[in-house]
Amino acid sequence: MYHSTIMDPAQFLWAFCFFVAGPIIFLTSAVIVARRLVGKPMSAVTLVTALLCLGLVPAWTFGFWAIGKAFRPVMFSMVAESNTVIAESEMRENPEGEQFTNR
Questions:
Q1: Does residue 17 belong to any structural domain of this protein?
Q2: Global confidence as pTM
């Protein structure tokens, strides 16, 4: 049985970023900001990076899902239209009853 997350390294990397690296970065940033609020001294670069991570990690994670949900029907219709044009041109070029392969 083929399982795309196991077999496809790119999908495995995305899943790792979404479900492992993202939450770890977010929680680490929350701890850094909490330590700063308690009064622990830290550099401005560390604090700015932590604040950016608190905003950007959720926006990155949920933003990709929202973008996919919004644009998936548009992309599907574009692919279907392109495939229809290719199929119609192949049917015109090849007489009926003849077998052909289009890749």
A1: yes
A2: 0.54
Query: How far, in Å, CA of 50 to CA of 54, rounded?
Result: 6
| Domain enclosing residue 21, as ranges | 4-70
Count of domains observed in the chain: 1
Calculate ∠ Cα 64-24-34, nearest 5°: 110
State the Cα–Cα distance between residues 96 and 60, nearest whole angstrom.
51
Residue-wise pLDDT for 27-84, tens only, equals 999 999 999 999 999 999 999 999 999 998 888 877 777 777 777 788 888 888 888 8
CB-based contact 58:25 (threshold 8 Å): no
- Owner of token pair 């970023």: 17
Ramachandran region, residue 54 (left: φ > 0; alpha: ψ -120 to 50; beta: rest): alpha
With tokens 């973008």, the residue in question is 67
For the record, the structure tokens of 100 come out as 């052909």
Token pair, residue 67, equals: 């973008």
